[in-house]
Design a protein that fits this description.
This protein has about 190 residues and is α+β, with helices and mostly antiparallel strands. The chain has 6 helices and 8 strands; from the N terminus they run βββαβαβααββααβ.
């Protein structure tokens, strides 16, 4: 199965598995390993996870050095979640500022299928760019299927957040002087 990152804030389809607390299995060994990874370096992209104290999991797929720097994470070393819920919630707040998606579990995210009918039109990509000056946020929201035709991959070629701001602006992004007024970011 090709696994795919979702580009949406909407709830993903439910997948029942041993990783889902509501899953019931008749076998003797039905204990899932706790989700502990924070940064995973895959063969195509880097994915960052967060585990808010309110439950569920946040996911930021396709992260680059700019994202990792914003998230205060090492660019070349895997990381595990914090045992301290306050520290983990702070990490999750930074993830939300970049447009993280929320799932009930990492398994729910990891089993999303790009070939699911309507996935490209249904999923929405939200890209946030925070100027170093601290003044506002640039946000670009587009259906995932249109990202290719818009050349959205240019955003991930930026070397820092200020450069990302320029790219998001050039691609038709919206500037929010007050980031709390952005409906696409859960701040």
């Amino acid at each position: 199965m090709f696994r795919f990152w979702p580009f949406s804030r909407e709830t993903a389809p439910s997948h029942k598995s041993k990783y889902d607390p509501s899953y019931e299995y008749d076998g003797d060994q039905d204990t899932a390993e706790p989700e502990t990874h924070r940064v995973i370096f895959g063969n195509r992209w880097t994915t960052v996870y967060g585990y808010p104290s309110s439950g569920g999991v946040l996911v930021l797929p396709f992260c680059n050095g700019v994202d990792l720097s914003f998230l205060q994470l090492a660019r070349f070393e895997p990381a595990e979640r914090s045992d301290d819920p306050v520290v983990e919630d702070q990490h999750c707040a930074r993830m939300r500022a970049l447009g993280a998606w929320e799932f009930t579990s990492a398994y729910e995210y990891e089993t999303m299928d790009i070939f699911h009918p309507g996935m490209l039109d249904k999923k929405v990509l939200v890209v946030a760019a925070w100027p170093r000056s601290g003044a506002g946020v640039w946000v670009l929201k587009t259906p995932m299927g249109q990202g290719y035709t818009k050349g959205l991959a240019r955003v991930w070629n930026a070397l820092d957040m200020d450069e990302r701001c320029e790219v998001v602006k050039s691609l038709g992004g919206t500037f929010y002087e007050d980031p709390a007024q952005c409906p696409d970011l859960e701040l």
